[in-house]
Amino acid sequence: MTKILMTSVRDDELPAINAFAADHHVEILTTPQLIDDAVDQTAGVDGLVIQQRSKVDPRVYPKLKANGLKQIATRTAGFDMVDIAKAHENGLTVTNVPAYSPRSVAEHALMQIFRLLRKSYRFDSQVAADDFRWFSDEQALEIHTVTIGIIGVGRIGGTLAKLLNALGAHVLGYDVQPRDELKGVVNYVSKAELLKQSDVVSLHVDLNPSSMGLLTAPDFALMKPTAGLVNASRGPVVNTADLVSALKDHQLAAAALDTFEGEEKVVMTDRRETGLHDVPLIEELHAMGNVILTPHIAFFTNNAVKNMVDFSLEDVLLILAGKPSPHEVQ
């Protein structure tokens, strides 16, 4: 029987994992550990599925080769944690799950857009301090009266655009590959024009060399002082130090960040006692009253979790059978 090891497994993934094992007559071993700490468990298994935000230890790849593995499947859309060249050097095919549920991230971004437009971050902090007043500068904007800019109009950005369009918002898009099927839904403009015109800017780009530091100080200077920023893509897309300065200087009003630079040090950790002193920029963001932080959970829905499990395991079986996967990372 085919045996597959899955690392970084959470309890909420187990129903989907057990169902897949029963349906496909395979044995699936699970561990909450990262592959860095569980590499010895790959001895005697046929396939491997990982999930992590930190870089895979370079020493893992030759150990996988030595243990006879032929592939690594990451059950995430992002694959920057895997050294593709090093994997290929060791005869390992790498796959990802590029579209486990575009709707999950799009709905999260839509929620955060509403929170920024309704200035809920201010009311949250006021009510938490037992202050139940409201003030003139907290007047909200209705969604059908605003312009929303989407940077990266792919699967997720395109899904968000359709949701916003259905609500009557004016949607601007910036993408290096505009999609014809979104004509009438998205008005494509330059990045500069999008930043200037938008009441909220939502980021939905992959992390690659061209998207690293996509938004920096000059970009924030273009935005309306009343505008908000949503990042549900990847942390390094935004220069955090520049964002902090822009928020302090009132170059933009607020930000909702599900991803942020340095998140690998804090996401899935309990900081109630230790605090955030070792990650000063995140500590500063966390302390700001006009910043909403969430721990990279935009993807975290029922459909998305099942698809991440199913698609990654299907890729393992394809590669073990000598067949190509449509999700292979070159």
From TrEMBL:
Pfam families per the UniProt record, alphabetical: 2-Hacid_dh, 2-Hacid_dh_C
Keyword Signal: no
Organism domain of life: Bacteria
Transmembrane feature ranges: none
Key words of the record: NAD, Oxidoreductase
Matches recorded under PROSITE patterns: D_2_HYDROXYACID_DH_1
Keyword Oxidoreductase included in the entry's annotation: yes
Naturally occurring in which organism (per UniProt): Limosilactobacillus panis
Sequence ranges assigned to domain D-isomer specific 2-hydroxyacid dehydrogenase NAD-binding in this UniProt record: 110-298
Assigned protein family: Belongs to the D-isomer specific 2-hydroxyacid dehydrogenase family.
Ranges of residues in domain D-isomer specific 2-hydroxyacid dehydrogenase catalytic: 5-329
Protein name: NAD(P)-dependent oxidoreductase
PANTHER family for the chain: 2-HYDROXYACID DEHYDROGENASE HOMOLOG 1-RELATED (PTHR43026:SF1)
